[in-house]
């Protein structure tokens, strides 16, 4: 990152810090204590901070964790701060775990209003060797796990004038239009950019082709991103699926609308980045919370960073 670019980003983060000090007015608050937000991977890092911020705004948060005992301990920390937070075990790569969670959520809360898909893995930290041997696991968690949760939670979204909200945590590294870490295959870029022709089958086929090319050693010559490759491709799938789902959900009736967006939290100081990040968890969580709660705006199928829309 150049000096000028870093200065602009630092200035924007300072502006956001000021914006966070301004409370929502009563007429902006479409939510209440009865509003239920589910945050996957909420036991630590960005997920924990998103849970804290949403609860601090007055939303009831269900924090999920693959390790049940860790989830309980994280929830206690937030509850001791006076926040309305519950927890439940959830492994997003396990269909039976997702189904069990969905049944529990429906029985206890009658559904949900907000879903934040935060749970994910990063199999490498950007080392020069850029290992891809865990590509299948990375894709299975970051893309198929997110997709699995969306499919399971959409039927449980409560009817609301404000609409259901889905927020997918993603990355700038996965932008089709990005100058850095870009896809070199122009034909693939064109197809990924055409939202009107996107299909779930095409996204799955593209990702499965990547996995096969990793396993046969041809992924470099096929023009995939050269840095944090498996992570970048997994988030590319999330971004593309977000746009596809936004279009698919756009014709839902009033009162049953669901808005889905994704955002990049930045290179955050968490376990996922080996604590090498340049952004605090508070800063990293902010845009996700902002999208989840944004009032009186039908925003869907967009990609955000630092509370601003960016190109896919």
What's this model, at a glance?
This protein is of the alpha/beta class. The chain has nine helices and eight strands.
General description of the model:
- Keywords: NADP, Oxidoreductase.
- Belongs to the short-chain dehydrogenases/reductases (SDR) family.
- This protein is α/β, with parallel strands linked by helices and 312 residues long.
- Helix content is 44%, strand content 12%.
- The protein contains 9 helices and 8 strands.
- The protein has helices spanning 3-20, 45-56, 68-80, 95-109, 135-153, 186-193, 200-216, 229-249, 281-293; strands at residues 36-39, 60-65, 85-89, 114-117, 164-169, 258-263, 303-305, 308-310.
- It has an 8-stranded mixed beta sheet with strand order 3-2-1-4-5-6-7-8, sandwiched between helices.
- Helix 2 packs across helix 9 (281-293) and helix 7 packs antiparallel against helix 8 (229-249).
- It is globular, with a radius of gyration of 19 Å.
List the helices and strands and how they pair.
Elements: H1 3-20, E1 36-39, H2 45-56, E2 60-65, H3 68-80, E3 85-89, H4 95-109, E4 114-117, H5 135-153, E5 164-169, H6 186-193, H7 200-216, H8 229-249, E6 258-263, H9 281-293, E7 303-305, E8 308-310
Parallel strand pairs: 1-2, 1-4, 2-3, 4-5, 5-6, 6-7
Antiparallel strand pairs: 7-8
Helix pairs in contact: 2-9, 4-5, 5-8, 7-8
């Amino acid at each position: 990152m150049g000096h000028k670019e870093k200065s602009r980003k630092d200035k924007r983060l300072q502006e956001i810090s000021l914006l966070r000090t301004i409370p929502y007015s009563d007429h902006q608050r479409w939510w209440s204590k009865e509003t239920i937000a589910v945050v996957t991977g909420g036991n630590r890092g960005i997920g924990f901070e998103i849970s804290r911020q949403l609860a601090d705004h007055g939303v009831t948060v269900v924090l999920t964790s693959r390790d049940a005992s860790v989830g309980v301990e994280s929830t206690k920390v937030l509850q001791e701060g006076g926040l309305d937070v519950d927890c439940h075990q959830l492994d997003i790569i396990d269909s039976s775990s997702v189904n069990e969670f969905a049944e529990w959520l429906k029985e206890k809360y009658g559904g949900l209003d907000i879903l934040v898909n935060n749970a994910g893995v990063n199999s490498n930290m950007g080392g020069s060797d850029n290992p891809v041997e865990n590509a299948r696991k990375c894709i299975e968690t970051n893309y198929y796990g997110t997709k699995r949760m969306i499919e399971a939670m959409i039927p449980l979204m409560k009817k609301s004038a404000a609409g259901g909200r889905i927020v997918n945590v993603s990355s700038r590294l996965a932008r089709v239009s990005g100058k850095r870490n870009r896809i070199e295959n122009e034909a693939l870029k064109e197809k990924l950019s055409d939202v009107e022709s996107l299909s779930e089958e095409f996204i799955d086929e593209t990702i499965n082709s990547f996995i096969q090319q990793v396993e046969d050693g041809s992924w470099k010559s096929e023009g995939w991103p050269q840095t944090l490759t498996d992570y970048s491709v997994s988030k590319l799938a999330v971004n593309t699926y977000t746009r596809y789902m936004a279009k698919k959900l756009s014709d839902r009736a009033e009162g049953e609308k669901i808005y889905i967006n994704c955002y990049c939290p930045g290179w955050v100081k968490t376990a996922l980045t080996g604590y090498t990040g340049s952004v605090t968890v508070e800063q990293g969580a902010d845009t996700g919370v902002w999208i989840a709660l944004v009032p009186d705006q039908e925003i869907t199928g967009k990609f955000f960073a630092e509370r601003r829309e960016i190109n896919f």
